[in-house]
Amino acid sequence: MANPADNLTLANVADLDRDDARRAVEAAEEAFKTWRCTSHRERRWLLRRWADLIRAHKEDLAAICTMELGKPFTESLVTYLNGETIPAAKSNNRIYSIRQPQGVVAAITPWNSPIAMVTRKVGAAIAAGNTVVCKPAPETPLCAIAIAKLFERAGGPPGFSTSFLRVRAGPLR
Question: Which residues form the Aldehyde dehydrogenase domain (predicted)?
Fold first, then answer.
């Protein structure tokens, strides 16, 4: 992992293979057995704490993003943690949603907004009671690692962040 501005090494990141990916899914499946039973209130508390930590560390996260991508710091500083509601096409239509855990979610995130994309994909899955194996873009693994560490600090179950965020430096071999 090199800084695009000067090509100096920022960090060494594991390059996992198919067997590692399989083990990540198996770990996430195992974690799902207990995680799906957590109450929505517990999950909500955890996600709120995680969002608070992301906000509290936004300058550190922006610095990591800037080093990985070469993005201007002020652009890296923008964090989107808001949701939106999409209304029905016709006023007399009703939309029903049933939120129940389905299992392991695979999240593949792009390089251009790594923090926002990881939080949006992983946060929604975790809120619903799912576990996640996340494959960040090869250009931005450090952002994903930082987000995973904050999830752990927020009170995520022990080892959960390693099963929800298996970082890869390149494509599956």
Answer: 2-76, 79-160
Alpha carbons within 13 A on the beta-carbon side of 157: 19
Domain boundaries along the sequence of the chain: 22-78+101-164
On whether the CB atoms of residues 45 and 37 are closer than 8 A, the answer is no
Q: What is the pLDDT of residue 97?
A: 67
107: β partners: 134
- One of 3.40.50.300, 3.30.70.990, 3.40.640.10, 3.40.605.10 is the CATH number of 22-78+101-164, namely 3.40.605.10
When the pLDDT of each residue in the chain is averaged and rounded to a whole number, the result is 81
Residue 15 has pLDDT above 90, yes or no: no
Rounded average pLDDT over 109-121: 88
Q: Are 151 and 19 in contact (CB under 8 A)?
A: no
- CA–CA distances in Å: residue 136 to residues 70, 93, 116: 17, 38, 12
Cα separation, 16 vs 13, whole angstroms? 9
pLDDT in tens, 68-110: 888 888 888 876 555 555 566 777 766 666 668 999 998 888 8
Q: Return d(Cα 134, Cα 115) in angstroms, integer.
A: 12
Q: Distance (Å, rounded) from C-alpha 77 to C-alpha 97?
A: 33
3-state secondary structure of 135: strand
